[in-house]
Amino acid sequence: MKIFLVGIGCVGKTTVGSKLATRLALPYFFFDLDDEVEKFFSTPIERLQDRLGTVQAYRQETSKALDHLLHQAGAMDAVIALPASGLMKPCWGIVKKANGIVIALEDKAENILNRITFFDKDSVPIKKVLTDEEKRLYLREIKLDITYFKPSYKKAHLTVNMAGLDADMATEKVEEMLDDYLQTKV
Questions:
Q1: 48-64 pLDDT, tens per residue?
Q2: CA gap 181, 87 in Å, rounded
Q3: CATH number of the domain encompassing residue 59
Q4: Cβ burial, residue 104 (10 Å; 0-12/13-18/19+)
């Protein structure tokens, strides 16, 4: 079974996804589509985005990496973290054909801001202390992302609100909701 996690950047898809894959019965694997895109194209994401020039062109290339991943043996039973646009065209068609379970992760914008991670053009994490003005601007951008992507998350089988939960508690909540969902399908 494939489990797809979707949500805006820094909502916790990678952290929860890797923990969920560990908690599920083997042989579950975890894949972060951002990492898979970088491997597939042998280039860091930001450099790929710069080269492609448009959001739509980048999404098209991302869908190619997703399609390639889903045809690998290790992806038969996997938890896969999708980008924020994972339930939009063109990735949505690939996700839909995969017949997996889609789980949308949500959290408050303020919590997401506290988890924000910065990377340079080569995908190397960098430390950055935000000023109050930068925090205000990033919070605004996070809220815009939530508003923009949320309608596509209605396609998900489950929506998990992680507000106030640490990574372990959020993973446990996802697993419980997944178990409940699977019980209704039996």
A1: 999 999 999 999 999 99
A2: 20
A3: 3.40.50.300
A4: buried
Q: Is residue 128 situated within a structural domain?
A: yes
Q: Is the pLDDT of residue 186 over 80?
A: no
Average pLDDT, rounded, for the chain: 96
Is 169 part of a structural domain of the chain? no
Expressed as residue numbers, the domain containing 130 is 2-163
In a domain, 172, yes or no: no
Helix segments in the chain, DSSP class H: 13-23, 33-41, 45-52, 55-70, 91-97, 109-115, 132-149, 167-185
Class of residue 182 by CB neighbours under 10 A (exposed 0-12, middle 13-18, buried 19+):
exposed
Number of structural domains, the chain? Answer: 1
How crowded is the C-beta side of 114, counted as CA atoms within 13 Å?
8
H-helix segments, 24-130: 33-41, 45-52, 55-70, 91-97, 109-115
185 domain residue, yes or no: no
